[in-house]
Specification:
By secondary structure, the protein is α+β, with helices and mostly antiparallel strands. The protein has 5 helices and 4 strands, in the order H-H-H-E-H-E-E-H-E.
Length: 153
């Protein structure tokens, strides 16, 4: 665990709320000098606490109306099944999230598609061709009730 103090936590909270805030604005809100704030942010970036600053894009605003979560069980009798599956799944551009698990389900893929016909096309022409699949369960997302992009500080 990295050592962060109360000021670092305040900086991180502000950055999670609005990544477009300038260092000067953050410094003012936190009550430190701009140079000090800049050094703190640089230290947290260098230590890996701050991984990146991104823009969060609403998929629906781009016409991606369908979201499906696929729970996949792999045939683990095959050598390097996980590695080969994940390498191939990364190449499917409509996959926007890949998670691995311990338990009955090995992998979860999150798929974004324009509509059900588009999803069906992705599923048939790309997902079913991924290596080492033993079982797939599809869960269609109806409503996203809550998403937290940040971490509790």
């Amino acid at each position: 665990m990295h050592n962060i103090d109360v000021i670092d936590k305040k900086i991180l909270r502000l950055m999670q709320i609005d990544a477009l805030l300038s260092v000067a604005d953050i410094a003012e809100k936190v009550g430190v000098a701009t140079a000090s704030c800049w050094r703190r942010i640089g230290r947290m970036e260098k230590s890996g606490i701050i991984k990146s600053q991104i823009s969060v894009i609403d998929p629906k605003a781009l016409g991606l109306e369908v979201e499906v979560s696929l729970r996949i069980t792999l045939d683990k009798t095959q050598t390097n099944a996980f590695d080969r599956f994940i390498e191939a799944a990364r190449k499917v551009k409509e996959v926007n999230e890949i998670q691995t698990f311990l338990g009955r389900v090995d992998v979860r893929l999150n798929i974004l598609a324009r509509d059900m016909a588009h999803y069906q096309e992705i599923y048939r022409s790309q997902i079913l061709l991924l290596p080492h699949i033993s079982d797939i369960e599809a869960l269609m997302v109806i409503t996203n009730v809550m998403t937290k992009d940040g971490v509790p500080l």
